[in-house]
Design goal:
Layout: E1 10-16, H1 23-37, E2 43-49, H2 56-61, E3 69-73, H3 81-93, E4 101-104, H4 114-125, E5 130-136, H5 143-157, E6 169-171, H6 173-180, H7 193-203, E7 208-215, H8 227-242, E8 259-260, H9 275-288, H10 290-296, H11 299-311, H12 318-334, H13 337-362, H14 367-383, H15 385-400
Parallel strand pairs: 1-2, 1-4, 2-3, 5-7, 7-8
Antiparallel strand pairs: 4-6, 5-6
C-alpha cells in the first residue's frame, strides 16, 4: 500500500531516559521490522526522551535507518515515561486521517526482534484498537504485574490482561484520539502511564488483544520500593475506584483474551535476587508503617503479617494477600490525600513480603509452575470479591446506624 498524503501512516515511539547504551539496538530492530513487514506504509521512528544527559539523542540519530527519525524531548528536568508518551500521542494526532497505527517499544530491550513490530502493529491494521504484549518472563521479574496489577484487574474487572504494564503497545487512531482528548492524571505522566493506558482501553470499550513476543530480556532489576510502585499503584487504585460500577453489584463474568501467536517463547533471562536483603527491607518498612497497617487491616490479618515478619517465616498466601489488597483499596477509597499516600507507602513492604513468599515457592520450579501460581493468585482475587463487597456493606451499615 502506498503512503497517503498529509502525514505519516505508522508512528513508532521509543521512550527513553539515559539509554545511550541500548537504544541503538532497539532502533535497528524496529527499522528492520518496518522494512520487512510494513514497507508500503510511510513510517517514522520517534525517540521520546527526557533530556538525557548521556547523549541518548546522538546514539539514536547515529543509527542508519530506512525510516526517517525524529528526536522529541521533554524540557530539561521534566521526567516521566508518561510525559514521553504524551508527546507521541500529540505527534500522532497531527498526522490526521493518514495515520493507520502507532506503537511503542521500551529502549532497554535486548530481546526485541523485527517480528515484534509485526506482532504489535499487525493486529491494529486488522482492526484492533489496543494491543498488549505477552512475554515469557522470569518469575522474579514483574512483581508489580504478577502480584498487584494482573490479579486486581482480573479479580475486579474479569479481564485477562496478563501484562498490563508491560511497556510495549500498539494503538489504533481511535485509541490515540481518545487518549488525546482526556486528561492524564499526574501519576500517568510518570511510571503510572502503562496501567493508565491499559485501564483506559478496558474501560473505553476498545477492542483489545495481546500479542506473543516471546522472551523479554531487558535491564530488569529486583523488586524495589522506589517511586515506580507508588506511581503505578496510585494510578491503578484511582482508576479502579473511578469505575466502581464495573465491579460492584456482581460485575461481569471473566472473559478470555485473544492472543496473537507467532513467536516461539524460549527460556527467560536468568535473574537472581538477594532474599536476605528483600526481607530486611520488608522488616524495616513494616516497622515504619506499622501504625498505618494496624489501622487499615483487620486484627486477624494484621497479627498474621506481624508474626510472619517477627519470626522471619514467609507464608503469605494468595488469599491473605488478596484480603490485604482489598482492605488497602477500601481504606484508600475513604482516605484524604495524605492518608492515600500513606496507605500506598504502607502497602510496599507487604507487596515485597508477598514476592518473598512467591520466590520461596517457585525458585526451584519450572516457569510453567510459577505461571500457574500467578493464575491461582488471580483466581483468589476473583473469589475474594465478596470480601471487598462486605467491607463496603459494613461501612454503609455503620453510617446508617
Amino acid at each position: 500500500m502506498g503512503a497517503r498524503r498529509g502525514g505519516y501512516e505508522l508512528v513508532i515511539g521509543l521512550p527513553s531516559f539515559m539509554e545511550a547504551d541500548s537504544i541503538g539496538h532497539v532502533v535497528r530492530q524496529v527499522d528492520q521490522g518496518l522494512r520487512t513487514y510494513f514497507g508500503g506504509l510511510r513510517s517514522i521512528i520517534l525517540n521520546l526522551d527526557n533530556h538525557s544527559e548521556d547523549d541518548t539523542r546522538s546514539a539514536f540519530m547515529a543509527v542508519d535507518t530506512a525510516a526517517p527519525k525524529k528526536y522529541i524531548s521533554t524540557p530539561q528536568y521534566v521526567r516521566g515515561k508518561g510525559n514521553n508518551l504524551m508527546n507521541m500521542v500529540r505527534f500522532a494526532a497531527r498526522q490526521g486521517d493518514s495515520l493507520r497505527a502507532a506503537a511503542v517499544f521500551d529502549t532497554d530491550l535486548r530481546s526485541i526482534t523485527p517480528e515484534w513490530v509485526r506482532q504489535l502493529v499487525g493486529p491494529v491494521i486488522e482492526g484492533y484498537d489496543f494491543v498488549l504484549p505477552w512475554y515469557r518472563r522470569h518469575q522474579f521479574d514483574g512483581t508489580i504485574t504478577n502480584h498487584l496489577c494482573y490479579p486486581l484487574i482480573f479479580g475486579l474487572l474479569g479481564e485477562r490482561v496478563r501484562q498490563p504494564i508491560g511497556g510495549e503497545y500498539a494503538f489504533s487512531p481511535k485509541m490515540l484520539s481518545h487518549l488525546n482528548g482526556i486528561p492524564w492524571p499526574p501519576m500517568a505522566r510518570l511510571y503510572g502511564v502503562d496501567i493508565f493506558l491499559s485501564l483506559t482501553a478496558i474501560s473505553g470499550g476498545h477492542r483489545l488483544c495481546q500479542a506473543e513476543l516471546g522472551v523479554k530480556v531487558h535491564k530488569a532489576s529486583a523488586p524495589k520500593l522506589g517511586p515506580m510502585f507508588a506511581q503505578v499503584v496510585t494510578t491503578l487504585f484511582d482508576m479502579l475506584l473511578a469505575r466502581k460500577d464495573r465491579w460492584t453489584g456482581g460485575g461481569r463474568e471473566p472473559g478470555g483474551m485473544v492472543t496473537i501467536g507467532g513467536i516461539e517463547t524460549g527460556s527467560p533471562q536468568e535473574l537472581a535476587v538477594d532474599m536476605g536483603e528483600m526481607k530486611g527491607r520488608v522488616r524495616g518498612e513494616f516497622i515504619r508503617h506499622r501504625d498505618i497497617l494496624k489501622g487499615i487491616l483487620n486484627g486477624y490479618l494484621f497479627r498474621q503479617i506481624e508474626q510472619m515478619v517477627d519470626e522471619d517465616r514467609y507464608r503469605y498466601g494468595s488469599l491473605l494477600w488478596a484480603q490485604t489488597v482489598y482492605e488497602s483499596l477500601h481504606a484508600y477509597d475513604r482516605g484524604n490525600a495524605a492518608a492515600k499516600r500513606g496507605i500506598i507507602e504502607a502497602l510496599k513492604p507487604l507487596h515485597l513480603a508477598r514476592a518473598v513468599t512467591f520466590n520461596y515457592e517457585t525458585f526451584r520450579s519450572s516457569m510453567d509452575y510459577a505461571e500457574e501460581l500467578v493464575e491461582e493468585q488471580a483466581r483468589a482475587f476473583r473469589s475474594m470479591r465478596p470480601f471487598l463487597a462486605g467491607l463496603y456493606e459494613a461501612k454503609a451499615g455503620g453510617a446508617k446506624r
